[in-house]
Every structure is written in structure tokens, then in C-alpha cells.
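quick one, 139 residues, struct below
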Amino acid sequence: MTETVTQTEGGGTPHGDGVPRALAGVVLDAPDARALADFYRRLLGWETVADEPDWVSLKGPDTTKISFQTEPEYRPPSWPSDGGHQQMMLHLDFEVDDLEAAHRHAVAVGARLADFQPQPDVRVYTDPAGHPFCLFVNE
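---
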């Protein structure tokens, strides 16, 4: 028996089959959702699409969204990981056109360049809440 998968107008499979259509976004916990959202708004230039006391969402130029949720018990991860602290569970990768210009911009809006840099063509930073993220040029 062969299963036929039909495509929806947007290119995904129909959601009646139980398979998720797309990743709607990523949510980062922080001690202050609004403060962290403000950092990413300045870093990325994305539009605020939801702004509540403990929840803020930013939307990129396509359908990509990043949301921020206040978590009073939040603990920042360590980078690189070590056994004695909260380990990183994910990080964000952002493609840039010019790594040096992107570095200057990221630091100017509040990012911190990580001490450990594993690759010469990627820069690892932490945001003000301690989440690691990378800037890279896709050659």
C-alpha cells in the first residue's frame, strides 16, 4: 500500500494528518521577557507582534518568530558546557553578510562575545540573559 501525501497551498502537508506543518517559532525563557525581547529587537530589527507582561513575540521577515517568556527561576546556561552548571539546551544561529560588521552591531546592542570560539568562521555570543547564539557567514 502506498500513502499519498497531498500538498497544501503553502507547500506543507495537510494538518489533518497529525504531522506539524511548520516550526512556528522558538521560545526563550528569561528573568524578564520584555528586556530580552528588546535586545533581540535591536539585534535583528524584527517587529513586535505580541507584547504582554510576561510574553513577547518578534516576527522576522518571513514567518519566523522568536518569543520570550518570563521565568522567575531561570538560570543561564554555561558555554562551553561543564558538569557543574546549567548546560546549554539549544542555541540560535543567524546568518550574516559581513561577520565583522555583525560583530560590532551585536556588541553595540548588548551581546557578549564568548571566551570560547570553536570555529574561525563563526562567532559565539551570549545575549543579556546568557543564551548562546552564533553569527556566521554562509560561504
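The beta strands are 26-30, 47-52, 55-59, 65-70, 92-95, 112-113, 122-126, 132-136.
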